[in-house]
Amino acid sequence: MPGRTSIWEDEQSDDDGRRPDVAERILALIHRRELGPGDLLPAEAELGRLLRASRPSIREALRGLAALDQVEVRHGQGTFVGRLGLGPVTGMLLTRARLRPSPGSLADLLAIAHALDGAVAELLVARPGDGRLVDLGADIQHRALAGQPVAPWCERFRSVLMEPAADTAAGELAQAVWYAAYRLSERSASPASSASSASSAGPGFLGLAPGAVGDSHLALAAAVRAGSVTDLRAALDGYYAPPG
């Protein structure tokens, strides 16, 4: 539009009459220009002109968006579109659980992660011949039965399991929620139970016998190797089952 100095001159307010805040306007600009991860954003001064916002407001909005992985500020180079990933959800869920504690917080997170894992089950089994999970599951079982901590192996197993869904929204969200549940289960463990659960490092595994920790991972590995969605969903039921 000739003479137009702001992309917001003909913008409508939100349905509730609220004008989008600066962060929302920056995200809208990214969408309008069809920018993707790694693309360079206009300089702060140009953003201020385009969005009709002060430079302090632009700077504050960019800091907030950077914390959410929406943009990446590289000193001396500029501001770029971020990964747009869902990793920051983990921190937000943990903060919420800490500030608004509830006896059901961990169970809620596990239920959500369980449902999301099931939603991407078809992707997770679509890799015939991949034996990494079987090897990792065997390592977890061996270490658990020997009374050795297995936390790094459980995390590695989880990362490998979710690889095929890493670029999907459901897969990313499943990972974010899983890690939140994992960290929350660690924080929720009482000092008395920490020593006995040293080898049970995973969501839903706190309090389980060491053999059950290994068996649950091996069941997941076997289902993936067999390419069976039905078996994988059944294994997930056991993986997320509360101790009892």
Low-confidence stretches: 1-18, 190-206
Tally of helical runs: 12
Largest sheet, in brief, is: 2 strands, antiparallel
Percentage of β-strand residues? under 5%
Look at the structure and give the mean pLDDT: 81
H/E topology pattern: HHHEEHHHHHHHHH
Q: In percent, how helical is the residue content?
A: 55-70%
| Mass-distribution shape | elongated
Structural class, from helix and strand content? mainly alpha
Q: What oligomeric arrangement do these chains adopt?
A: single chain
Terminal Cα separation, in Å? 67 Å
- Rg measurement, Å: 23 Å
User: What's the count of strands?
Assistant: 2
Strand order, sheet with most strands: 1-2
Structural topology:
Elements: H1 22-32, H2 44-51, H3 55-67, E1 71-74, E2 78-81, H4 88-99, H5 105-119, H6 121-124, H7 132-145, H8 151-162, H9 169-188, H10 191-196, H11 210-226, H12 229-239
Antiparallel strand pairs: 1-2
